Amino acid sequence: MSPIEFLGNHTYRMVLFGTMTIGLVAGALGSFAYLRKQSLISDVISHAALPGTLLAFLTAVVVLGADGRNMIALIIGAVIVGTLAVLFANGVSRVSKIRIDTAMAVSLTVFFGGGMLLMRIIANGAFPGKGGIQDYLFGNASVITIADLTTSIIVGALALVLMLVFWKEFALRTFDPDHSTVLGFRARTIDTLMFTTIVIATVIGVKAVGLVLMVAFVVTPPAAARQWTRTLPGMVALSAVFGAVGSGVGAYLSIVLGKVPTGPLIVITLFAIFLLSLLFSPRRSIITRAVSRARARDALKQELLLGSAPAEGALR
Known about the structure:
Number of helices: 15
Order of helices and strands: HHHHHHHHHHHHHHH
Distance between the termini: 79 Å
Shape: globular
Structural class: mainly alpha
Radius of gyration: 24 Å
């Protein structure tokens, strides 16, 4: 299938543009989670998004009598619960001796367990529009509609705007949290804003990719971009490019190859970008470091040989 034929199909366009939007937003905002050494936070968010979307579905259907599959309502529910899960993990780590990785693991399992319970309740109940609700576990990019794409673009753009508006606060809180506190920035407020943007970047992709694989969209592009850049703006921009390009290429290949799930193939494509970055980036690659170490060993040997030559001559 040629690119022209691919773009001529409405469903394929929705898959392509939808996944590229998800990859771009998640890649850009995931940089802050990566730099704060809280990459697992995206896994917490994606799993907490399940009970968030299901609660929003139940609220819309049972309480409001509205369409439970409304994308905006589902995103709002996922953002609220996902943010609570992140704040819970960080709060436990802050007020106790439990490390952040343990707190995140506890938060992930508790919220995901609640989500699975809600899913069983919905599956066994007579709720209108409940068909396909299990797609939030593993994702289904082929069901992206124009309304879904528009919502993802608007919500993702809002998260990126928040990042740009609070860029200085986010950067200072990421690299020097103590200094940011001394300057008068409220740590909890900045953390809440930062994690809310990361939550948004994660939940907009749950429907298309699924909560199981969404962590790769947040973690892999920043990890690849870090190999090429030394500055925060460069890393955020390149991570967004890697996320968008990897998602687009993966979506295209999944359709061209036929009967290949989109989410897993995008994850493999992102991993390929990461692997190439790990091997061939000019400053941080494995090859560059191996060559540098070999040259350093050779230089040390030469210095030792030159240093020992006069001493041997003197003894004679």
